[in-house]
Amino acid sequence: MADQKPSRKKSALGRGLGALLEDSPAKNPKKDSLLDSSKTGIAEIPLENISVNPFQPRTHFDKESLEELAESIRIQGIIQPITVRKLDHDEYQLISGERRFQASKLAGLKGIPAYVRTANDQQMLEMALIENIQRENLNALEIAHSYQRLLSECNLKQEELGDRVGKNRSTVNNYLRLLKLPPTIQAAIKDQKLSMGHARALINVEEVQDQLAIFKKAIEEELSVRKVEALVKALSEPSPAKTTAPGLSPMQKYEIGKLQERLASHFGTKVNLKSNHKNKGEIKIPFNSSNDLNRILEILDLI
Predict the structure, then answer these.
(1) Measuring CA to CA, how many Å separate 299 from each of 270, 294, 302?
(2) With the CA atoms of 68, 72, 73 and 78 taken in that order, what torsion angle do they form, in degrees rounded to the nearest 10?
(3) CATH of domain 16-135
(4) How far apart are CA 101 and CA 111, in angstroms?
(5) Catalytic residue positions, numbered
């Protein structure tokens, strides 16, 4: 395999990952030929000498996707080397590239090309988190947890985090706000039953019960992001039902308002619908003349 040099070109990560990979101080100052070789190229390391990354931010790897990658490796080999750090003589720890590492095992490889770098635990955590955020197909919740770990465990500020991952502060903040959603909604995001667009709309709902109500409706009726946004917007807008239904939650008031609109459309006239928290209430259908009354009675199939 031809020697390759890690690019020093400034990417979307700023100097985040590049600086950590190139400038981090050695945990073990003892030099050896393999460590020196990483400065000029790639070393072939036995898979059995590499331990997994304890800071791996990704918690789930799709088995089918992993097998597909293994088959590709059997045919084409490793195209992109993994990155490791040296722990001791012939002992290495994965920094990034766990999918390639695991797929190589499935493919039956004995060794794998790798960049050897030096890093302490905090630097390794930052490298692993940033590399995964940039290269892996993480779900929105995994990205949110990775951002939170970068802030809390790597002592980064949101502005610094945005520079490292190539995102503006508002985007980073939107991901972080996902962690404030109820566990049920977070689980749906993790299982990819709810998109980032849906979740971003739900973030703006203040009451947890309203978040859960809209979430349940979105799942059951397979609502689009735009429809969920409309539900969220309706919670903050006044409607006839809001002034006639004391004691109800905003979501219940919204549902009553929508039902009132459907009844008005069905009867072709204004309909007043009232309900309380015990689901008791009344429906008033006004009429303007005897002909109008007969029309409504015909709709009700009473004449």
Answers:
(1) 15, 9, 8
(2) -110
(3) 3.90.1530.30
(4) 10
(5) 98
DSSP 8-state class, residue 35:
H
| Tokens coding 239 | 């409607």
Query: Distance between CA 72 and CA 81 in Å, rounded?
Result: 14
Q: Which residues of 189-200 are buried (b: 16+ CB within 10 A; e: fewer)?
A: bbeeebbbebbb
- d(CA 80, CA 246) in angstroms, rounded, equals 62
pLDDT tens by residue, 135-164? 656 788 888 888 888 888 787 888 888 888
Dihedral, 295, 300, 302, 303 alpha carbons, nearest 10: 30
Tell me the β-bridge partners of 83: 96, 115
Residue type, 209: Q
Listed in order, the ranges of the chain carrying CATH 3.90.1530.30 are 16-135
User: CA nearest 94: which of 65, 119, 64?
Assistant: 119
Are the beta carbons of 138 and 108 closer than 8 angstroms? Answer: no
1-12 tens-digit pLDDT:
444 444 444 444
Q: What is the CA radius of gyration of the chain?
A: 29
DSSP secondary structure letter of residue 276: -
